[in-house]
Predict the structure.
Amino acid sequence: MADVDDLILISVDDHLIEPPDLFADHLDAKYQDRAPRLERNDAGSDVWVFNGIAMETVALNAVAGRPKEEYGMEPQSLDEVRPGCYDVHERVKDMDAGGVLASMNFPSFPTFTARVFETSDLDLSSALVRAYNDWHIDAWCGAYPARFIPMAVPMMWDPEACAAEVRRCAAKGCHSLSFTENPAALGRPSFHDPHWDPLWKACVDTGTVVSIHLGSSGKMAIPAVDSPPDVMITLQPMNIQSAAADLLWSRVIKQFPALRIALSEGGTGWIPYFLDRLDRTYEMHRAWTQQDFGGKLPSEVFRERFLTCFISDPIGVEMRHHIGVDNMCWEADFPHSDSMWPTAPEELGAVFDKHDVPDDEVRKMTHENAMRWYSFDPFTHIAREDATVGALRRSAVGHDVAITPLSTRVRTPDEKLEGFRARARRAVAAG
Amino acid sequence: MADVDDLILISVDDHLIEPPDLFADHLDAKYQDRAPRLERNDAGSDVWVFNGIAMETVALNAVAGRPKEEYGMEPQSLDEVRPGCYDVHERVKDMDAGGVLASMNFPSFPTFTARVFETSDLDLSSALVRAYNDWHIDAWCGAYPARFIPMAVPMMWDPEACAAEVRRCAAKGCHSLSFTENPAALGRPSFHDPHWDPLWKACVDTGTVVSIHLGSSGKMAIPAVDSPPDVMITLQPMNIQSAAADLLWSRVIKQFPALRIALSEGGTGWIPYFLDRLDRTYEMHRAWTQQDFGGKLPSEVFRERFLTCFISDPIGVEMRHHIGVDNMCWEADFPHSDSMWPTAPEELGAVFDKHDVPDDEVRKMTHENAMRWYSFDPFTHIAREDATVGALRRSAVGHDVAITPLSTRVRTPDEKLEGFRARARRAVAAG
């Protein structure tokens, strides 16, 4: 096993927090006065205000660099988070210090499917999606081409328009689309409806991966409104199994044999059992359910078409040959609480060591699979010897990575618990 | 590894179909005319009629002994299923032929929580639960004491009355209670509410295991109304993860340190990853969520308090030391489609062989754990040498175990698919 310093790390799942000036340079002038704007409310929280609604999730769970006592659903303002959450230049310094060469960044306040942009004026809504994608691809990722895998957000209200947006973004070098784990849960036709076919065709034509992040069905994973937060934290990554099953057995997989899907932040340790369930279901029930994958088993189809990822996941790494080493990627989840920034490389290296993972498999999981799946090649911009954990960290000497309380508003654990419960009550009330 | 003929098999999860005369000898005379009764409707289906409602799930998925083309949500009448589903004498012959020494049988038409018995007249409702339990314990199990682990059904409408019923049944030798994976989903207080404390206390006092079967929240595991049946079949055993997490992090586990829970038909291959998630959640978040398991890790608490089970589950058996060999049991799921009757012993033996499971671990998983957890000792009634797969099968020579079409009403796969879709539509409509 190679030294941690020699690893090259590409993360396929991180998060950015949108800066206040997001729409300034990328939205048509005629819509500027209607664009979402970041305001500080009377409680001292930063909220995005749009279409008459104030959204309080500006920096949900962006706790990297803070002590565990400060974890929780908060923070709620930009001055409670590291600047690397919303400033790309600071972000790259945080990546350097964390040993991360490149990263794919999911959106925050617009939700994973940009559904907050949907209004009765779909021209405005579409303009906002295009502006967001232009900002993300050209300004955020474009500032450091070696360091970011660009990702677009969809127009959920119109598959044809969404397909056109995928093609437009692909022409700019973007080969990832953030989508939902369950369009039916968002009130749209399900994965089993031909409704979405124009979108799948655009993704296939452009080599765009459909990146499905956990939590993108708009539901909180809680059995009861009074379930402790630990229940949700435990279950969140496991619920993506539902999307994996729904897509695997869908017509989409058969009708679009080149379509590829990423299960973002989905973990990997559950997959061996899942694949066994798929094959057993096929063996026992296909005679009446009429499923047909040609000469293949569903587990083989899964390995060809689904990208999986993990943070450290000792079980997934131990069972990697049951999963498929060619479709496992590493992820960092910066700046959320699952992230181990800035010591993620050490924790990952320890898992590789424990299971004696050979170098070629390490390379696949740490960066080669991500490069191939997302058509991303950082080495046209940076030399390999400058891209390692060790080299990046040497370039970041002096950047402050101490774990320190950052809150301007210190909350007690009791207040944090109540914050979670209030969110749960709102989620359950909203159905 | 021992010969399959030498295995001793106790199954902790099977199902019975209620016979028409269930209430005849066990319900007070004053309620006889209001008891549920089995009627054949105009479509030729047997339906239980009670309280003005006709229930069409008389024999849901009871397809043991039928060819795979006949699998599905049906059959819908007693003459479409093996008599061993509803006749205890035939059942024991089916068990003999399948090499199964003993079995715990969950209810069918009353649901896992007997909630169909709830009416505005709670005296009637309680009388029905007591009659059901008396029939199950005294008539069904009592006919062959070596062959059945008795299990009671609850009175969900009253924790005090339910506690009293648990004590009454325990006095008759019953140490298992069928319960729900999520009382909140049934419109009751959740696992986090002290509401249920009298029940937990009764279970602890009497050594009664709370047996939680998948599907016992009254919900169908489908992401969308038009998801293919394969999605539900794949996901069903995985959804019990939600109950496991909800209970593990609940106050119940801490307040009642002797309470034990079985995750019935839950499978085992998902557990290593689940335990890793539990411990990681505890490590990362307990500072704000205020969870406290004393000096133990949540994975240790899980191994002490939760019984798991599997049919063959090659991944679970391979990973058994991550799960806990002392809390894994075998199950048959007779007469449902996951069952491999009558060749389950051979399929189980092949998995044990593949992973070189030593004899002492085989004994634990095949029968010793079930005996200890459920306070059940068949060997006071039967000699060990007569209890093996080989001995039981020798006693059943001549019993018909051929896989043959049994349907009096043959349905095409298309009709079966439509039957599933109709159920899905009803489930989604019912919320």
